[in-house]
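Example 4.3 (complexes with small molecules)
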Amino acid sequence: MNIMSKIVGMGSSVPKKRLTNFDLEKMVDTSDEWIFTRTGVKERRIADPGTTVAELAAPAAIDALKMAGVDSKELDLIICATSTPDMMFPSTACAIQALIGAAECPAFDLLAACSGFVYSLSVADQFIRSGSSKTVLLVASEIYSKMINWEDRGTCVLFGDGSAAIVLQANNNSEGVLGSEIHSDGKFGSFIKAGGMPKRHNFSSEPQVEADYFVVMKGSHTFKVAVKKMTDVSLSLLEKLTISPAEIDLIIPHQANERIMKAVAKSLNVDEGKVFNNIAGYGNTSAASIPLAMTEAYMANRINKGDLVLTVAFGGGLTWGANLIRF
Ligand code: UT7
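Answer. The structure with oxa(dethia)-CoA bound is encoded below.
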């Protein structure tokens, strides 16, 4: 029998603090008008100093488990997609495992920057299809605010903090992840990058951190590649599954820039109304952006039973990928 991974629970959790474009006008040489017309962002959430990525994630995970009717002890795998972990180790997934009281299931982080969710969903789906796991918690949680240079207007207006989670369960009735496709190309690693890691061992006991700690991005280069790769991977996945773009009920793209989302919809020849967009309220929350948007779309009845939903993302690495899900 064909085993599929069905999404049975969703949850999200964002910090209370809002940082508006008007707040940013007082911090760097920018304007609400520039930010909104170039990106679609109006405000973003910022975690309190000291809040960990795992603490931000735990309420999202608990809500997703509640919706699924699953006890944390039943989980047999936890994957956390993050590129802003609290520590090198223990992993953020292990920290979340402790916070939600899960049993001794495997837990690991997956780092694919803004493509973290589509990558993790592909990996979780392999665990379920192979029979290794029956019930999987996938959490995506990011605190980019700690990695942003708040004097760099080219990046500080874009990113925000947030978490979201889904629970996947093995299922036999053709609902769930129909397929995924993921790619990377390390040649273009310099397009978006962040340091933050200790330097090579130099026999010193002083903490040493890379000089290029902050997120840096070649914005317009990234923009062009993002549109092309998100379009290409969507078409390639749909072709493999013999589904046409016209059959998709909703596209949930990574929320990096409203103009990128519109350009991808145009290239796929899909009506903009079928593209879910909540970037105005959160900015780019990296790996968390797709599940955050998915949870919001579901709660707003934009996703119904039987719907075909395409998720597609692009990010540092460079990485990109897509999943097609039958709800
Ligand atoms: O999530 C991972 C993937 N990330 C992405 O896909 C992000 C992709 N890139 C983008 O979204 C866009 O490239 C940005 C939003 C980052 C920039 O928009 P753009 O239309 O590509 O602008 P640009 O970088 O070509 O800059 C145009 C002008 C420049 O001024 P000059 O040289 O024309 O005088 C910039 O200095 O806009 C200036 N600028 C700003 N002005 C006001 C750049 N940032 C700002 C700002 N406020 N915040």
